[in-house]
Amino acid sequence: MRLGLALGYWGRGPDPGHLELAREAERLGYDSVWTAEAWGSDAFTPLTWIAAHTSRIRLGTAVAQMAARTPTATAMHALTLDHLSGGRMMLGLGLSGPQVVEGWYGRPFPGSPLTATREYVDVVRQVMARKGPVELAGRFHSHPYAGGDGTGTGKPLKPITHPLRADLPLLLGAEGPKNIAQTTRIADGWLPLYWSPLRTDVYEASLADLREGFMVAPMARAQVCDDIAEGLLPVKAMLGFYIGGMGRAVRNFHAELMARMGFEAEARRIQNLFLAGRREEAVRAVPDDFADEISLVGPPERIAERLELWRTGPVTDLLVTAPDMRTLRVLAELNA
Q1: Which of 119, 107, 102 is nearest to 248 (CA)?
Q2: Per-residue pLDDT averaged across 47-75, rounded?
Q3: 109: phi then psi, degrees, rounded to nearest 5
Q4: What CA–CA distance (Å, rounded) separates 271 from 243?
Q5: pTM score, two decimals?
Q6: Which DSSP category does 92 fall into?
Q7: Rounded Cα distance, 248 and 203, in Å
Q8: 176 — alpha (psi -120 to 50), left (phi > 0) or beta?
Q9: How many angstroms separate the CA atoms of 64 and 43, rounded?
Q10: Which 3 state secondary structure label does DSSP give 261?
């Protein structure tokens, strides 16, 4: 099981420690470093900055949001950074949810998310393969554009720049069972949002046809500390926000996933509290058991024991959000 460092997206401003963490992760032998985006900082610019200050560690987006760019624009980002980094780029994509797609990007959330994802991946693959002009008569992505409000003069094009690698790894962030199953067919890897090594049966049917080399790369908060309850607070804060606020009461993909993992009543309570403006209560309502299962928190001996559970399943890459150098080093030693 390889280790990766997940830096996430910026909050109010750039984190001055991210570059230092990335360079230390490379020195310790971590395989990859990953950036993200929500509705603030983008995923590609920080990753390019990290690429310029490292030489070996692989570079991934976990995740770049599909609604933020056309698939050809995303492919341009990926092929450019792959060249500049000497072939270290991995493209992780996610559809996001209606709240972000419509509220931030100002475009409709696709009525058929699986079809929209499949078309997006198809276009990116065509660009990277560069076997001919990009052509797709899709429901959501049309190349050339064929809408009635166009000029009708668009022509199929292929990238001027030759991609460094036609097989640049493409991973998808997926939560629903059908979306995960499709991911195993059309992508090179899967980026689970929540992964519990104690509940792998939740994904068993969706992962039934895994092929050799397919990446399963969940993210997990990691922190070496003596006080487990205190170490779990950032995990519970994240869960309270995602379960409670990232979606509507009638449709929240994160809450639906938590429910499938055996915490349906708890997910509903978190949502109700958060949507009622009682955010601190929503965070406290996150079960310690759930937060603990999807993270690696505690003294080194405890993390060592729990790390063994992560190795027993299909996980190929563990992407850790580690807040300090000590945690990075302890994980590297335990995974050696």
Answers
A1: 102
A2: 98
A3: -70, 135
A4: 6
A5: 0.93
A6: E
A7: 24
A8: beta
A9: 6
A10: coil
